[in-house]
Amino acid sequence: MSVPPTPLATALEGGPLVLDGGLSNQLEAQGCDLSDELWSARLLADDPGQIEAAHAAYVRAGARVLITSSYQATYEGFAHRGVAREDATALLGRSVELARGAAGGAADPAAPVWVAASVGPYGAMLADGSEYRGRYGLSVAELERFHRPRIEALVAAGPDVLALETVPDADEAAAMLRAVEGCGVPVWLSYSIAGEATRAGQPLRDAFAVAAGNEQVIAVGVNCCEPGDADRAVEIAAEATGKPVVVYPNSGEEWDAAARSWRGRSTFDPARVKGWRDAGARLIGGCCRVGPDRIAELAGVVRNH
Q: Hcy-binding domain spans which residues (predicted)?
């Protein structure tokens, strides 16, 4: 399980890198049942081979950065399932190890694959859609205390970067950035948005500003949003921070929580890559419902440009 010889931040100076797509949809395509509060994190204990296989599918599609299965993995969530704290620590570390194992299977040694340890928002642990609303009624200090232990566990497993992702609220972003201080691993910060605001309603320019002067943050951007909303968000992120931009929207379909099904049609179009790249995007991929086929198309566009 080799570690890329070049830091991710340095690699971004050479041009865009392709992220993977949605992990859950690929696991479902492999026949996994994710109808559980822990979502894909349940498989860290029950069937870790499926997670590594899903990562490997994205490596074959051309992804150069793999995001771990730890988005919904928290000490609180594992405890609710009766998992002891030391075992939860091991499972968090396993999420990094599985991605690293898949990365080590990349066919081209000249095209290394980096591992991003996913740190999802507090709302993901609640498993009630709160990550698409924010405003949990917790202070920045309380959110920092929630995030810090699992960040420490993920860092101990040796990822190349921490992905602070699907963050709905600038206050939570501030808490997460405080929680990663001094951990020795670079981070990217990625908001979930609606239009030109966070899900909690803060203007994106203000939300991105919390990371503007933070050298630990190597990229800022958006994920799990409408592909159309990502266009302007990439521009705002670059203007507000001067940092490389990370962008990985979902398929554009809408989740009907009552019916527990997706509605509408996919609007994810790899042709958008040129506009994102020109606006400052350097980490480009997909989120929910964007599978290896679309990532392969995206990778082809990136190579051609």
A: 5-302
| Domains of the chain, CATH where assigned | 8-304 (3.20.20.330)
Q: Is 224 annotated as a binding residue?
A: yes
- Written as one string, the DSSP assignment of the chain is -PPPSS-HHHHHTTS-EEB---HHHHHHHTT----STTGGGGHHHH-HHHHHHHHHHHHHHT-SEEE-S-TT--HHHHHHTT--HHHHHHHHHHHHHHHHHHHTT-S-TTS--EEEEEE--HHHHHTSSGGGT---S--HHHHHHHHHHHHHHHHHT--SEEEEEEE--HHHHHHHHHHHTTSS--EEEEE-EETTEETTS-BHHHHHHTTTT-TTEEEEEEESS-HHHHHHHHHHHHHHH-S-EEEE---S-EEETTTTEEES-----GGGHHHHHHHTEEEE---TT--HHHHHHHHHHHHH-
Is residue 183 a known part of a binding site? no
What pTM value is reported for the model? Answer: 0.95
Q: Say if residue 287 carries a ligand binding annotation.
A: yes
